[in-house]
């Protein structure tokens, strides 16, 4: 689904990734972890095209992103949704209007159909319908994330990018959000690319885990294999006290 | 699109005698007791507009309910599922709608979208259009009144803190005051000087042309002296500072409010008025009279230069005449207004900054309002001063 080969990103002389390879398979939930400053978010931004890589190719659905024309690029954006860390909802629009923005941008639908679609996306994200008329500033952090997830699902994407989906949520809210992501991935057949710090999310939700370090992907495998991988950071991360609490040891 | 046409043709080839209506995605067949609605093609978001526009015709053909057959649907996504539920809901208004032949692959999706979502507002409530002007006028009036009352209250609060810190010098924050003085005073000397110089020059230039008709062009110096020292110098300076520093105060404090920095300050036991408002107020009250003095000098210099070029009055002659006709009172009348204008600008700017709430939109709106309001208040205050000085005979 996503194929990254030889990616190199840099800010001036500071090289973030060098020769990074990564594959995301169709239908899986891939968790990307790494210490602070290893460039998890930079990788995400490079894949979704917000950041131009210095070298390397990025293919989504078999299309090379660098070779696309502007129009192809615009159309390809229908195939994937992005959930930003703080939701990035448009603050001057209501939640309902926020979900309708991508629909309005890409299609000329009737008003009542857009409304029904927005409301059903809201239900899928586990929000009550009266949230639709509220503004993002009236919502709690967890609800904002769910509303943003509803917006990223608006165009029925096959691929979903989530940047730290559970950061800033309480454990119960985070667990509920994990469950929601898993549920949606299963029922809609979504492929999910998930950048996270949250060990619980990794253990409960992800099919495979990619570990970022030393400017490339150290290992990209199911949890058990990653835990057995011989690298000081990986060992410390998956065998520390917090990992034990998350049940990674069992 | 051609793929759907093919399906449509296949569908129409097999069309039974009772077929009433069909398009690329829906075929309606007569039957008893209820009609048969066959769905085919790809029910995905790319075809949503076509499928949705076919709905009224299909629903009209199903007067006594229908059996909806999904077995021929190619691919389905959530948008398609919502559309199926919409069809069912619309048909159910006439009679029962039964869903049959759902493929196993589509079942999970239709389980997620279990029904057409009940109607709910996606936009905030609007009043009817004929009441809107009345409502807006009323709201604007009430808001203006409330806002003035709050601004006055805020001024009182600030003054209380200000006089309180006279007795408790430990509360005075000298470094921020000096920093603000540099930003609002020193760094605005360029623009204030340039505008004053040009206005002084233009006043002499235009005044001389008009007064020359009476042979009274020497009086242009009286006009410049009185006009610039009493009114224009200080008024222009105040308006530039309101636009330049008042808006900056609102934006700085407002973005701090949005990032909850002000709340953090309160929990650390720091009073936001002491930390944010007083340094700006004190700096502006000190700097605006200085800037006004500077604007007076530069404006007169601009006038003198123009008089030299246009009327051949040498700067030495200009100054001799100027000292004869312009009394020091005019200068004092101008400069005494500066601290009051400064207080109005700083208070309005900080007040609007602290009132920012919610989104980035609110920050922009508050900044605009702070500039408009402080310029308005400066001009109103100037008018009141003019009346006052006339009545005391200055």
From TrEMBL, chain A:
InterPro entries, A to Z: AAA+_ATPase, ABC_transporter-like_ATP-bd, ABC_transporter-like_CS, P-loop_NTPase
Cross-referenced PROSITE patterns: ABC_TRANSPORTER_1 (PS00211), ABC_TRANSPORTER_2 (PS50893)
Record key words, sorted: ATP-binding, Nucleotide-binding, Transport
Gene3D superfamilies, alphabetized: P-loop containing nucleotide triphosphate hydrolases
Ranges where the ABC transporter domain occurs: 2-239
Top-level taxon: Bacteria
GO molecular function per UniProt: ATP binding; ATP hydrolysis activity
Protein name: Phospholipid/cholesterol/gamma-HCH transport system ATP-binding protein
Organism: Kordiimonas lacus
TrEMBL record, chain B:
Superkingdom: Bacteria
Membrane topology summary: Multi-pass membrane protein
Keyword Acetylation appears in the UniProt entry: no
InterPro entries, A to Z: ABC_MlaE_roteobac, Permease_MalE
Broad class of where this protein is predominantly found: membrane
Transmembrane spans: 151-172, 184-204, 281-311, 331-354, 375-393
Key words, A-Z: Cell inner membrane, Cell membrane, Membrane, Transmembrane, Transmembrane helix
Pfam families linked: MlaE
GO cellular component: ATP-binding cassette (ABC) transporter complex
Subcellular localization: Cell inner membrane
Single annotated GO MF: phospholipid transporter activity
Similarity section: Belongs to the MlaE permease family.
Cited function: Could be part of an ABC transporter complex.
NCBIfam families named among the record's database cross-references: MlaE family lipid ABC transporter permease subunit
Protein name as annotated: Phospholipid/cholesterol/gamma-HCH transport system permease protein
């Amino acid at each position: 689904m996503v194929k990254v080969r030889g990616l190199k990103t840099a800010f001036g002389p500071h090289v973030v990734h060098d020769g990074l390879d990564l594959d995301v398979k169709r239908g899986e939930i891939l968790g990307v972890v790494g210490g602070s400053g290893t460039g998890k978010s930079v990788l995400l931004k490079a894949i979704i095209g917000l950041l131009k890589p210095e070298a390397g190719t990025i293919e989504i659905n078999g299309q090379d992103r660098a070779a696309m024309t502007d129009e192809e690029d615009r159309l390809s954006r229908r195939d994937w949704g992005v959930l930003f860390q703080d939701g990035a909802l448009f603050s001057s629009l209501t939640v309902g209007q926020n979900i309708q923005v991508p629909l309005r941008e890409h299609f000329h639908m009737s008003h009542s159909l857009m409304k029904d679609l927005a409301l059903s996306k809201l239900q899928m994200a586990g929000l009550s319908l009266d949230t639709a008329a509220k503004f993002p500033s009236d919502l709690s952090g967890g609800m904002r994330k769910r509303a943003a997830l509803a917006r990223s699902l608006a165009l029925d994407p096959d691929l979903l990018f989530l940047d730290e989906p559970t950061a800033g949520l309480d454990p119960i809210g985070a667990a509920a959000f994990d469950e929601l992501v898993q549920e949606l991935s299963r029922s809609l057949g979504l492929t999910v690319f998930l950048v996270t710090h949250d060990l619980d999310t990794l253990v409960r939700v992800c099919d495979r885990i990619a570990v970022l370090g030393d400017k490339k992907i150290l290992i990209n495998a199911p949890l058990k294999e990653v835990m057995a991988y011989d690298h000081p950071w990986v060992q410390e991360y998956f065998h520390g006290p917090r990992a034990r609490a998350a049940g990674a040891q069992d | 699109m051609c793929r759907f046409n093919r399906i449509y043709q296949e569908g129409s080839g097999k069309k039974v005698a009772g077929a009433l209506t069909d398009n690329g995605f829906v075929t309606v067949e007569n039957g008893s007791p209820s009609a048969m609605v066959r769905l085919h093609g790809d029910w995905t978001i790319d075809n949503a507009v076509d499928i949705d526009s076919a709905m009224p015709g299909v629903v009209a053909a199903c007067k006594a309910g229908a059996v909806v057959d999904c077995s021929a649907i190619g691919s389905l996504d959530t948008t398609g599922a919502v559309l199926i539920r919409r069809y069912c809901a619309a048909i159910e208004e006439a009679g029962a709608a039964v869903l049959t032949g759902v493929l196993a692959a589509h079942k999970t999706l239709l389980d997620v979208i279990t029904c057409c979502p009940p109607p709910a507002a996606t936009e905030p409530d609007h009043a009817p259009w004929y009441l809107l002007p009345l409502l807006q006028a009323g709201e604007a009036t009430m808001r203006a009144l409330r806002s003035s009352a709050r601004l006055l209250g805020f001024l009182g609060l600030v003054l209380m803190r200000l006089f309180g810190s006279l007795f408790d010098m430990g509360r005075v924050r000298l470094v921020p005051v000096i920093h603000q003085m540099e930003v609002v005073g020193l760094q605005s000397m360029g623009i204030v000087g340039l505008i004053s110089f040009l206005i002084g020059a233009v006043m002499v230039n235009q005044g001389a042309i008009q007064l020359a008709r009476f042979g009274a062009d020497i009086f242009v110096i009286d006009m410049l002296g009185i006009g610039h020292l009493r009114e224009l110098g200080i008024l222009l300076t105040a308006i530039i500072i309101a636009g330049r520093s008042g808006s900056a105060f609102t934006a700085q404090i407002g973005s701090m409010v949005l990032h909850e920095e002000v709340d953090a300050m309160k929990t650390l036991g720091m009073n936001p008025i002491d930390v944010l408002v007083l340094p700006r107020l004190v700096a502006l009250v000190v700097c605006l009279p200085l800037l006004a003095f500077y604007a007076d000098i530069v404006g007169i210099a601009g006038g003198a230069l123009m008089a030299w070029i246009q009327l051949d009055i040498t700067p030495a002659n200009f100054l001799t005449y100027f000292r004869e006709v312009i009394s020091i009172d005019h200068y004092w009348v101008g400069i005494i207004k500066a601290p009051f204008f400064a207080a109005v600008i700083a208070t309005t700017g900080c007040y609007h900054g602290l009132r920012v709430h919610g989104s980035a939109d609110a920050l922009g709106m508050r900044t605009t309002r702070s500039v408009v309001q402080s310029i308005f208040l400066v001009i109103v205050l100037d008018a009141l001063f003019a009346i006052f000085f006339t009545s005391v005979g200055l």
